[in-house]
Amino acid sequence: MESFNARIAVVIRVSLQSIVKLIQQQTVGAQKPAEQRESPDQRQSQRPAAGPSRAGQDRHKYTFQLIRTVRHIAEIDKDEKHALTPEQAKQVLDILTPLRSEPKLTGDGAKQVLKDLKKVFAADQLNAMARIKPRFQSGRTRGERRAQTGTDGMDRRPPPPTVMKDFNPFYKQAPKGDERAERRAKRWEEFFAGLEKKAKSK
């Protein structure tokens, strides 16, 4: 009987040792040594770089901000509560009209135009512009919405990379054969015509 109990004790001890060893192996495998752990900087460096579209938007962010701001000006002018006064319309024309004859617009130039435009509007008008959300045509997939024009008729697609450098969206002379540029120039022409009409009103 004592011999049988001794054998049982040996089996239990060996089993416990095997379980403890297995747990230790799993713990060591789950934890990397401190020198092998990735730092936040290493993880960041391993992430894929921003694609050309995102990078282009970053380089031309002030130009895109200016486009949105001018669209928002057109939007709030439809609301009687926030519509431009004739004097404000005149000031906006004075700021934007010179861009119509310039084929190029630098990021710094767009940034300055944004600052000049901000001075024209009252706080409630600026707040109204900030509340405007992008609106797209219905019945399209998400990718198609990004690629097409919005309900305001403005072409939302960024120009090709070949013409992105110092791109001036307000330049009135569209390259021959570039239908998108021609549509854009026509819509801005209508926008400026509306401003001129308001500036002359009493």
The count of DSSP E runs of length 2 or more, i.e. the number of strands, is 0
Secondary-structure element pattern, one letter each? HHHHHHHHH
Low-confidence stretches: 48-52, 137-141, 143-153
Rg calculated over all Cα atoms: 32 Å
Q: Based on helices, strands and strand pairing, what is the structural class?
A: mainly alpha
Q: How large is the count of helical segments?
A: 9
What's the overall average pLDDT, rounded?
76
Main sheet properties: none
Oligomer: single chain
Number of domains: 1
Describe the structure.
The chain is built from nine helices and no strands. By secondary structure, the chain is mainly alpha-helical. The protein has one domain. The chain is elongated. The termini are far apart. About 10% of the residues have low confidence.
